[in-house]
């Protein structure tokens, strides 16, 4: 069984998802789906739980966990403003001639992030380094580094660490860059 899983993962990485970039120590669970108009880039030590999906352009850092049933999806995947065309037949981002909103938007998830079971993250969002997204949340805006967000729409619940000293020690022990990492990714969201 282990050999079959390994063969499936090799098929996915080298054939099915060959347009995308993956770091070392990738784990993808059963029933995972990935698609992006332009690209997906995933860092080292990435875990993606069962039945999760990436259905948009994405940049994902190192040591990131997506729990089961997590979805990274486009905010503007269908042109719902087309007059005289039903939603089912409206142009969508997968079309080669799609020219509406969202064409260059992506999700950015920085290092050391945990996205909980069933959470949804929309394009145009940066999930800051060291943060946690609660199960079932819908993330429509940026997430501050080293914080915990939850709800629909997701809002800040609290900081991940009780003190700045604890956060600094975590950053030091894990060999991470500082908590202002979100600034370097501002241009990556689009």
Question: What is this structure's SSE topology?
Answer:
Blueprint lengths: L1 H15 L4 E2 L4 E2 L4 E2 L5 E3 L4 E2 L4 E3 L1 E4 L4 E2 L4 E3 L32 E4 L4 E2 L4 E3 L3 E2 L4 E2 L4 E2 L7 E5 L2 E6 L4 H11 L16
Parallel strand pairs: 1-4, 2-5, 3-6, 4-7, 5-8, 6-9, 7-10, 8-11, 9-12, 10-13, 11-14, 12-15, 14-16
Antiparallel strand pairs: 16-17
How do the helices and strands follow one another from N- to C-terminus?
HEEEEEEEEEEEEEEEEEH
Structural classification:
alpha/beta
- Helical amount: 10-25%
- Report the radius of gyration as a whole number of Å: 17 Å
**Low-pLDDT segments, ≥5 res:** none
On the 0-100 scale, what is the average pLDDT?
Answer: 91
**CATH class value:** Mainly Beta
Described by the principal axes of the CA atoms, the overall outline is: globular
Q: Please report the number of helical segments.
A: 2
Distance between the termini: 41 Å
* CATH level-two architecture: 3 Solenoid
Within CATH, the superfamily carries the name: Hexapeptide repeat proteins
Strand content: 25-35%
The oligomeric state is single chain
CATH fold label:
UDP N-Acetylglucosamine Acyltransferase, domain 1
Give me the side-by-side strand order of the main sheet.
2-5-8-11-14-16-17
> What is the domain tally?
1
């Amino acid at each position: 069984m282990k050999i079959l899983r390994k063969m499936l993962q090799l098929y996915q990485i080298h054939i099915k998802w060959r347009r995308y970039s993956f770091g070392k120590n990738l784990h993808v669970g059963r029933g995972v789906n990935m698609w992006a108009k332009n690209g997906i880039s995933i860092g080292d030590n990435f875990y993606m739980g069962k039945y999760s999906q990436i259905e948009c352009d994405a940049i994902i850092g190192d040591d990131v966990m997506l729990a089961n049933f997590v979805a990274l999806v486009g905010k503007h995947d269908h042109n719902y403003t087309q007059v005289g065309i039903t939603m089912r037949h409206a142009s969508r981002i997968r079309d080669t001639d799609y020219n509406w909103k969202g064409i260059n938007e992506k999700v950015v998830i920085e290092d050391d992030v945990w996205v909980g079971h069933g959470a949804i993250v929309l394009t145009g969002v940066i999930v800051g380094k060291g943060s946690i997204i609660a199960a079932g949340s819908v993330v429509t805006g940026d997430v501050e580094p080293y914080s915990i967000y939850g709800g629909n729409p997701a809002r800040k619940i609290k900081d991940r660490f009780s003190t700045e000293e604890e956060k600094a020690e975590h950053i030091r022990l894990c060999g991470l860059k500082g908590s202002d990492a979100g600034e370097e990714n501002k241009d990556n969201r689009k």
